[in-house]
Structures are given as structure tokens and as C-alpha cells.
Amino acid sequence: KAGVTQTPRYLIKTRGQQVTLSCSPISGHRSVSWYQQTPGQGLQFLFEYFSETQRNKGNFPGRFSGRQFSNSRSEMNVSTLELGDSALYLCASSLGQGAYNEQFFGPGTRLTVL
Amino acid sequence: DAKTTQPPSMDCAEGRAANLPCNHSTISGNEYVYWYRQIHSQGPQYIIHGLKNNETNEMASLIITEDRKSSTLILPHATLRDTAVYYCIVRESHSGGYQKVTFGIGTKLQVIP
Asked: Which candidate in B14, B56, B69, B86 could, as Cys together with B25 as Cys, close a disulfide (CB 3.0–4.6 Å)?
């Protein structure tokens, strides 16, 4: 079974631009979560989607948004990019909701904002 | 959210057991303890999880104290490939079954030959 895939793997943008990242979960998984990882802050939860609905949101500004499609694929969008948005963005999928569901992470998209 | 506290770094000799502690003193009854590790430039990898009983799988053992305020991940025979950042996290289930995850900074484990 194929793992979680994320595209693109690397991205370079300039301040003020917007960016869209894509995540394809493991086949059959319906929950997708997004994380931001920076050296200073570690892994921080962005949001979680299940059945096309955002179920939980972390403490990030409204410039960070996402959505999930009927096939469970998810996209994350960051508008008006800032230098501090440079990070590794990780997507994780799980079968369903609830703490008994194991999360599987993708390789991440490394975003550099210049 | 229950928060976790881990030492920022640890060393372990190759072939010896690596014991990685985690404090989660504000954990509530319906929260699970999960451990992941992240090898440089890869996504986090699931290791093990538990609620209140000790757990063991092919990768590691998880020891949870009786009051559930702390836990220890044990890698019984550490190898160089176990060098990674280890994350202890607490996952909760809100009403309706929604899950929310809080990650800490993790412990950087260096296995020394």
C-alpha cells in the first residue's frame, strides 16, 4: 500500500506570495492532519480534516487555511507569505478520528520564503 | 491540551538499552500517550502508543506510570539507525470523536558506536 504523498517536495517563494501544498493520504484513510516544523518550535499542529470538514485547528493565523476533498486528498494554503513561514510542512493521515488511530506521516514539503 | 516535557538530548551506547523519559503531568483520562521518531529529513515514524498499560511491540516498549503522569520509551538494543528525534505526544478525543495532537520539541537521541 502506498504511503502518504506530498507535493511538491520543495518550494521557494517570495514574501507576499501565496502557496498551495497538496497531500494524498493512504488509501482508505479519511483523516488528514497538517503540521508545521521549524528548528525552534518543533512540530506544531495546524489543522485536521475528516470527511471534508475541519475538525480541529491549532494556533495559527487565518493566512493558513486548508480543505479536504471527497477522495480525502487535502490541500493547505498559505496566503501573504512571511519569512517566518519557511518550514517543513508535514501531512499525516489516519483511518479515522479518535486517539486509537495511528497517524502516518508523509515526507513533507520544504517551503523557503525569500 | 496536555503538554509533554522531554529532555532535549540524550546519548546511548550502541547495543545498550535507550530509556527516553516523558512527563505529561496534566494528562486526562481519555488521552493516549504516543511516541514517534523522526530521522533527519524524513517524516515522523510511529513507534508505539498506550493508554495506561505497558505496551511492547517489535520496535520498543512503553512503560506508563500508574498515575499516568509520565512514561518511558525503551529501545532494548539501540543501534546507530535509532539516532533520531523522539517525540512523546498526547492525543485526546473531544466529544464527537475529534482528535487534536500536541507535539513537543522532542528528545534528540544520539547512539554512539
From this structure: B69
Q: Taking CA atoms, what residue in A is nearest to B99? A: A98
Dihedral sign computed on CA atoms, order B100, A37, A69, A53: positive
- Read off the amino acid at residue A60: F
One-letter identity of residue A35: Y
User: Chain A interface, mutation test: which of B101, B102, B103, B105, most A Cβ atoms within 10 Å?
Assistant: B101
Checking if the pLDDT of B92 tops 70, the result is no
Question: Measured between alpha carbons, how far is A46 from A48 in angstroms, rounded to an integer?
Answer: 7
SS (H, E, C) chain B: CCCCECCCEEEEECCCCEEEEEECCCCCCCCEEEEEEECCCCCCEEEEEECCCCEECCCCEEEECCCCCEEEEEECCCCHHHCEEEEEEEEEECCCCCEEEECCCCEEEEEEC
Instruction: Decide: B105 and B4 in contact? Cβ < 8 Å.
Output: no
